[in-house]
Amino acid sequence: MNAPPLRGFDLLGVPYDGQSTLGYPGSRDAPERVRRCASWINMRIQDGRIYCLESNQEMEVGDALFVDCGDVEVFPHNVLATFESTTAAVRRTIEGGRVPIVIGGDDCLLFPVAKGVHDALPGRIGIVHFDAHLDLMDDSEKQGRYSQSSGMRRAIELDRVSAPDCIQVCERHFNFPASGRFKRDKDLVHLSAREVLRIGPQETVRRILEHTAGADHLFLSFDIDAIDPAFAPGAGAHEPGGISSAEALEMVELLAPHCAAMAITEVNPATDHMDQTSMLAAYLAFTFAVYGSQAAGHETRQMEAAHVG
Questions:
Q1: How many structural domains is the chain composed of?
Q2: 168 three-state secondary structure
């Protein structure tokens, strides 16, 4: 049997932080910084191959593994128009037979990226949500309905996104009791950062994939504050006790072959140190592309079917 074709990945920037109602604003500047860092990594592809030092092997990734498609159109004073633009860009990428990697922007973008995946692909959509926070606020006088604190809540309201098909990873410390009640009522589970640090990357990913096995497609949403601020100071919020950059990269590597899209949000150059966090985000994106390009079987066939349809 012939091997499935290599998957290609499109980098899409969304320079929008209009819903950064808490924490530090400034993530609108992340796409340009991450893009610059990613180009420095992407140049290492030669004749469609890249050398991986972890495995001491060359990997075939193709000549169009990681294509920068520029920024999605944003509307600074119209969050719903920005959502529509983001959703349409994600959907076009998937329907074109490629995999979107979206660089935010604040974490309100979880919802429109999830909707783009939902609208482009058939079946049940699961979300793997790396974040220090639950993002399950419904509505509030201070933040409204579509803030950075509501992305996951809005996403699981989509028709084919069911909370039991989703999992939250690296959440920590304290949150609103109302969010805890909602989570339990909807059977939405999480692996706390403390648990992830205890069991390690490989067991964490095993549990993620076991829990989401009923979903037909997975969307990986990665808020950079899932990583400890010692490794990622350029974030919209600083929550101590997170995972390391090495642990994050290993988990993204292991999850990539199973995912139909990725978003990296809340990278904030205004709080960063010498582009440390932007470079980490670029490596997360490139790692997702390299290892995701090797995906075989179910996910590739489903995406090809959607493209043909």
A1: 1
A2: strand
| C-alpha span between 124 and 158 (Å, rounded) | 10
Overall pTM > 0.90: yes
Residue 146 falls inside a structural domain: no
Which residue shows structure tokens 């924490």? 23
- Using a 10 angstrom Cβ sphere, with 0-12 exposed, 13-18 middle and 19 or more buried, the burial of residue 304 is middle
* Sole residue written with tokens 């950062």: 193
Q: Are 73 and 85 in contact (CB under 8 A)?
A: yes
Distances in whole angstroms, Cα of residue 72 to Cα of each of 117, 133, 172, 268: 16, 26, 32, 18
- Residue 301: is its pLDDT beyond 50? no
Task: Identify the domain containing residue 218 by its residue range.
Answer: 9-138+165-308
Q: What is the C-alpha separation between 95 and 237, in angstroms, rounded? A: 34
CATH of the domain at 55: 3.40.800.10
Token duo for residue 45? 């592809």
The answer to whether position 129 is within a domain reads yes
